[in-house]
Amino acid sequence: MDKVCAVFGGSRGIGRAVAQLMAQKGYRLAIVARNLEVAKAAAGDLGGGHLAFSCDVAKEHDVKHTFEEMEKNLGPVNFLVNAAGINRDSLLVRTKTEDMISQLHTNLLGSMLTCKAAMKTMIQQQRGSIVNIGSIIGLKGNAGQSVYSATKGGLVGFSRALAKEVARKKIRVNVVAPGFVHTDMTKALNEEHLKKNIPLGRFGEPIDVAHAVVFLLESPYITGHVLVVDGGLQLTM
Ligand code: NDP
């Protein structure tokens, strides 16, 4: 049976590295993001047989339609990675409500919607593995990131509860919680200052996280787990 994996947020950063690693391992990939051109370029770089889809994870209709299209064109989706995410960092008193909502909708509601849409096929097939990308900030908190922390903390609760709900159907749900990783999301950060607190002395690369994601996707006896990939940052927080 084909191994088909949908990577939401697979066009850039961590999701893209996950897709690249999975393509090397023989999976067929659905690269999903809002910007179709960027997603197509990322899918094209993987070689033949992989497809790109445009979808806003915060929109239920988009997510449902994307699953229909993925399954029509690639077959049953048995692997799901939720790497679509945004941040709007600011102190709570300065955070606009619309920025709270966009982070909640993309980072938390989005993963709920994709997991729900994936369930039908996974339950039918009694086979499925999901990895949601959380954050060390969701476990430890960080000043200036209260809303983002809430979305990522919420994702842990959601994933652990869902893991209990669907374990009997042979579906596993895990979380990878990265520290600082070199992607578009962290471009504006003061790396020299921040890396002083990282025991391994550097930001992570997307591939560092991708190895952990693929490990959990493929580990048949691990579910409801949160795997921190942060160069030891949590030891200092
Ligand atoms: P990037 O900004 O590099 O990539 C984000 C990806 O998500 C892009 O593919 C983007 O494509 C997609 N995306 C964003 N919003 C939506 C949406 N509404 N619907 C569909 N796709 C969307 O981010 P990273 O790779 O850095 O982050 C990946 C995940 O890892 C995120 O959840 C992030 O919170 C988390 N994380 C990142 C860390 C870091 O240091 N980089 C640390 C800890 C966690 P498009 O814009 O075209 O939609």
TrEMBL record:
Gene Ontology cellular component terms for the protein in this record: mitochondrial matrix
Q: Which protein family is it in?
A: Belongs to the short-chain dehydrogenases/reductases (SDR) family.
Pathway linked to the protein: Lipid metabolism; fatty acid biosynthesis
Entries under PANTHER family matching the protein: 3-OXOACYL-[ACYL-CARRIER-PROTEIN] REDUCTASE (PTHR42760:SF133), SHORT-CHAIN DEHYDROGENASES/REDUCTASES FAMILY MEMBER (PTHR42760)
Q: Which GO terms describe its biological process?
A: fatty acid biosynthetic process
Q: What class of enzyme is it?
A: oxidoreductase
Give a GO molecular function annotation for the protein.
3-oxoacyl-[acyl-carrier-protein] reductase (NADPH) activity
Q: Report what the protein is called.
A: 3-oxoacyl-[acyl-carrier-protein] reductase
Tell me the organism. Answer: Myotis myotis
